[in-house]
Specification:
alpha/beta; Rossmann fold; GMP Synthetase, Chain A, domain 3; 3 domains; six-stranded antiparallel β-sheet
């Protein structure tokens, strides 16, 4: 019996319908190419569907039914993709969770996941076999069935029931958890398909000949899940998939995918641009001319990173117009705004001091204190307003970015209080600080990441960027936060940065950091600490967990 014959004849689902129709009509069409060790493994639509149906049977055998939550902890690869779709095919709402790894704090990882399991109340948790005992221990008392992925090799796929209706919850997308419990964002099938249609149009993907999307992004992060898995699968665009940890060790794998398989699009966070620049050594070159867009998202985009990337790889086919910017969040499924593909991202030169006081103003003549990159206009159906004090402001006024759209999330799973707090009427309060200029969205920081020292506002990401440029500091491995100093009677600026090497004197590096920060934001550091590599705690999405690093700073350094 073919995989296609296992499907229910009538699905009635705006997300699954086009996917399944395509798989049935063209099972030999390319689904994706997955990097597996030293090789690229090609998978057609029929083979992928067959694997997804096996995981659907695994979930069904574990008692998972329509409307149940199914969490997935698998290493990046074909099975992770197939298991997610398999859960959807039996009407469950899947959610990816990160696998433990040596770069994470093991105590923090299991504490966080015990909390998530207890809160999410999944019917089943699918894991790779060597993780079975640890997850069973973490999920003890939740009633969840913990099952191993190897069962997919033994089960017999079964005919599937009709899919849930358009308004049913399709998946859970967990937040990165920079503070507190990770919140499960509930997304409906209708919201996902509406968002993907709008984002396809914003990218003009239907006008690209033979599009292919290359990605090393983890699937438990909304950028990887939506841009590089669900979007291409829904559109029938082949994916070129690389394990995130393999990419970290060998960033050129992304360039391999682009050159060998003629990728047209990829999504990356800003830090990845600099990672590529720093790691590109030797005389080897790649042909990157097939790239239509490298879309930068997930963290503040920096002009210096864009410029460095183009300067380093311009001879390989990258131009200023190749680099694009997107503002996105799980609560809107993904994209809120997107820069127009084909033209360089617009820049604003602003007065940094005025910006920190909440004013958008041009710098004094001859100065370019702050260079902000546009995130483009809102995509179709999405409205963006800026909340200032008790009302919405006009353009070029900084305030909290608020959003409304037909594809907003269905709420936080099992957390009605957080859901209610997130809204002001129909408007989602993002917690991001930004403004609108000529209809385009600019983000300047997070409300929670504003540090106030002696009455002056400082954006933590500006400080961290300055520290990352200091010699002997590992780039991207610094955290800035405010901590109340009893002797000074006010909040002081604290920097904790990881050493790049042990040869430099800590006192000398600390002085360099203090000077760089003072030059960048005009504030002196209250305390600077140099620590070993791996000391700082990051979230699963690669962002600094300020709350956990503050705890560690207070505990280990005896600060009160």
């Amino acid at each position: 019996m073919s995989a296609a014959s296992q499907l229910a004849p009538e699905r009635g689902n705006p997300f699954l319908d086009p996917i399944l129709a395509r798989w049935q009509a063209a099972p030999a069409a390319l689904f994706g190419i997955f990097h597996d060790g030293d090789e690229w493994q090609t998978l057609d639509q029929g083979a992928f569907l067959a694997r997804a149906l096996r995981f659907a049977a695994v979930f069904a055998q574990a008692g998972v039914a329509t409307g149940d939550i199914a969490l997935i902890i698998l290493e990046h690869g074909i099975d992770a993709h197939a298991a997610f779709v398999g859960a959807m095919l039996i009407g469950a709402a899947p959610g990816f969770m990160p696998s433990p790894n040596v770069k994470q704090d093991a105590v923090l990882y299991w504490r966080t996941h015990r909390d998530v399991f207890a809160h999410a109340k999944p019917r089943a948790i699918l894991v790779y076999d060597t993780l079975l005992d640890a997850v069973r221990d973490a999920a003890d008392g939740t009633g969840a069935a913990v099952v191993g992925a190897s069962l997919a090799d033994t089960v017999t796929p079964a005919t599937l029931p009709p899919a849930p209706d358009a308004g049913a919850v399709a998946l859970l997308q967990h937040s990165s958890g920079t503070t507190g419990l990770k919140k499960g964002v509930k997304l409906s099938y209708q919201a996902i398909s509406d968002q993907l249609a709008a984002y396809r149009d914003a990218l003009a993907l239907d006008k690209v000949a033979a599009p292919r999307i290359a990605s090393w992004l983890p699937l438990y992060h909304d950028m990887g899940l939506l841009s590089s898995f669900l979007l291409p699968m829904w559109l029938g665009v082949p994916i070129l998939s690389i394990d995130p940890f393999e990419w970290t060790r060998q960033p050129s794998l992304l360039f391999d995918a682009v050159e060998e398989h003629r990728a047209t699009h990829t999504w990356v966070p800003n830090f990845a641009l600099l990672h590529h620049v720093r790691s590109a050594r030797g005389k080897r070159t790649w042909d990157l001319s097939s790239l239509v867009a490298i879309v930068c998202c997930s963290e503040p985009n920096k002009a210096e990173a864009f410029d460095a990337f183009v300067a380093r790889f311009g001879d390989w086919g990258v131009t200023a117009a190749t680099l694009q910017a997107c503002y996105a969040m799980a609560e809107t499924v993904f994209a809120v705004s997107q820069t127009p593909v084909g033209t360089p991202v617009r820049r604003l030169m602003l007065d940094r001091g005025a910006l920190l006081e909440g004013v958008v103003a041009a710098p004094a003549e001859g100065r370019e204190d702050a260079v902000l990159l546009s995130n483009g206009p809102p995509i179709a159906g999405c409205e963006v307003r800026v909340l200032k004090d008790d009302g919405f402001a006009g353009e070029r006024v900084i305030g909290e970015v608020c959003i409304t759209a037909p594809y907003l999330f269905s709420g936080y799973h099992n957390n009605p209080a957080a859901t209610e707090k997130a809204f002001l009427g129909k408007w989602l309060r993002t917690g991001d600080l930004g403004f609108i200029d000529q209809g385009e969205v600019f983000i300047v920081g997070r409300l929670k990441d504003v540090i106030i020292v002696n009455g002056k506002n400082i954006f933590a990401h500006d400080v961290e960027a300055a520290v990352s440029r200091v010699p002997h500091v590992k780039p991207g491995r610094a955290v800035a936060f405010g901590h109340y100093a009893a002797d000074a009677g006010s909040e002081q600026l604290v920097i904790v940065a990881e050493r790049l090497d042990a040869a430099a004197d800590d006192a000398d590096v600390a002085r360099l950091i203090s000077h760089a920060v003072s030059e960048e934001v005009g504030v002196s550091c209250g305390d600077v600490r140099l620590v070993d590599q791996g000391w700082l705690v990051k979230t699963t999405s690669g962002k600094m967990s300020r709350a956990e690093n503050v705890k560690k700073y207070v505990t280990l350094f005896g600060v009160t």
